[in-house]
Amino acid sequence: MSKQDSHFFNNFSLVLGILFAVTLGLFAFARQVGEEHQLAQVTTDPRYVSGVEDRLKPVGSVAVAGQDNTALAIQSNGPEITVALPADGTAAYETGCVACHGAGIAGAPKAGDKGAWGPRIAQGKATLYKHAIEGYNGKAGVMPAKGGQISWPDDLITQAVDHMVDLSK
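Request: output the structure for the sequence above.
Response:
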């Protein structure tokens, strides 16, 4: 390599090094200024401040006997949710029970199968009601409590049992 080429590479390397150092310096300066400005702007932003206040609110309060605790009463955030119930045992069977008792899933006796229902009916309606309401784990299969319809009242479950028994006689 000639002396002239060597001189060019040395100068070129020096210029590149200086440009790289200036670039790093400007980058560091911009970051520092940006962080300070962003921190000042974010912490004074009303949305940020209200969000922090919401997250720092106490989760609950303690009601003390003998003091006015009316401010601690539970308040509803929306309309009360109601569950639509089937009108009777037949509708309950068609809405929920048929999922298992229509196809015999999980060992459930099919509605109308006299051979499968005969021994169960022989145990008495009280036992059938108890198994339907509380659930049952037996050799033949599994019956979840209320057939998984936990929001249904017990009398609707007993009506559905009566309907399946009537189909299986």
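The longest strand covers residues 136-137.
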